[in-house]
């Protein structure tokens, strides 16, 4: 009897492993369709409080969904419009950055004069003449994406944008019906269905609260960075503040990108040690935000194990790239809320159907 029981347990474990592999393969293969769909659903959950506000004003469901989608498009368009000058400025400055990098390293050669091998590696990597640096600058320019590459990927981007907008609209339009349908199908009694429906409401509330809190934190971080960069004289401080606020939604990866970008901008804009001042400012602000501001505002009821956050981020980044990085934390919070892992009040009102 024991042998048969062990065999059944092994078979169940094997089936679970095979099922997980199949799910990951399906998610990877259907990335172009599923990634914007899941992003749209997560966005709809985040924007659900706004939908409820419009509904309480007596607006029809169709108009509510259309208004929320329109506001989302306007917000994304405004952010893209503000960040576009910074992107083109960095693209155009890539050859100059190569020159500035060489000068920047040259200023530190006195500090490592005794390490001849390190000096030789630096000279071989960056070149010892202006002609070599210029050639590398040309290589960088040649390596930049061309117009034909952008035109090749344009249909995919447009299709994903349409999938995102369509999914977001219909999710906002029918989310209550979706919650009711799922609650009725996964339970066997009205009481259990009510509890599942309440879990959906709790998940919406937690994700919206988390996103709102993180948004406030990111705005404070971006404003502080813009003010500090304005004081030190870095060009386009407002754009850098907006970029830092937006990329800070991508845990770990976003701050790394901002730090690297500020280092390049500092090398282009300043001479000597002043080049490292912009990234150091951001690192200090980000450290303060991560160690003090976020734990104080998010609170203990929304605390998530850092290892679980890191694993979720790595897995979703591996599956879907930047989109996976955006949805990693909201999906984790939704999953934990549905499994009733958070320390929440079970008697909370049903916000999904109310």
UniProtKB/TrEMBL annotation:
Protein localization: Membrane
Record's keyword annotation contains Metal-binding: no
Bilayer disposition of the protein: Multi-pass membrane protein
Domain of life: Bacteria
Major localisation: membrane
Similarity annotation: Belongs to the autoinducer-2 exporter (AI-2E) (TC 2.A.86) family.
Protein known as: AI-2E family transporter
Source organism of this protein record: Roseovarius pelagicus
């Amino acid at each position: 009897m024991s042998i048969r029981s062990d065999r059944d347990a092994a078979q169940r474990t094997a089936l679970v492993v095979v099922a997980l592999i199949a799910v990951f393969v399906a998610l990877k293969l259907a990335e172009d369709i599923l990634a914007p769909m899941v992003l749209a659903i997560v966005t709809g959950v985040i924007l659900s409080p706004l939908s409820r506000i419009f509904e309480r004003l007596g607006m029809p469901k169709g108009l509510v969904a259309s208004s929320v989608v329109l506001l989302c498009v306007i917000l994304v368009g405004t952010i893209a419009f503000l960040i576009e000058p910074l992107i083109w400025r960095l693209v155009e400055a890539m050859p100059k950055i190569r020159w500035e990098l060489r000068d920047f390293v040259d200023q530190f050669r006195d500090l490592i004069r005794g390490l001849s091998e390190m000096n030789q590696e630096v000279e071989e990597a960056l070149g010892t003449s202006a002609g070599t640096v210029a050639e590398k600058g040309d290589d960088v320019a040649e390596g930049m994406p061309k117009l034909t590459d952008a035109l090749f990927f344009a249909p995919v981007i447009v299709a994903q944008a349409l999938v995102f907008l369509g999914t977001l609209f219909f999710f906002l339009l029918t989310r209550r019906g979706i919650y009711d349908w799922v609650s009725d199908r996964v339970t066997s009694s009205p009481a259990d269905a009510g509890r599942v429906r309440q879990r959906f409401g709790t998940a919406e509330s937690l994700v919206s609260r988390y996103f709102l809190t993180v948004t406030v934190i990111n705005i404070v971080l971006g404003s502080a960075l813009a003010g500090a960069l304005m004081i030190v004289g870095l060009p386009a401080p407002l754009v850098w503040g907006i970029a830092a606020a937006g990329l800070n939604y991508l845990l770990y990866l976003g701050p790394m990108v901002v730090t690297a970008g500020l280092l390049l901008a500092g090398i282009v804009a300043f001479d000597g040690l002043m080049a490292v001042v912009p990234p150091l400012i951001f690192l200090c602000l980000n450290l303060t935000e991560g160690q003090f501001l976020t734990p104080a505002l998010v609170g203990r009821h929304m605390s998530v194990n850092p290892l679980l956050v890191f694993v979720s981020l790595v897995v979703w980044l591996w599956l879907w790239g930047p989109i996976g990085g955006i949805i990693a934390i909201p999906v984790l919070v939704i999953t934990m809320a549905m499994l009733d892992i958070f320390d929440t009040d079970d008697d909370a009102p049903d916000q999904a159907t109310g």
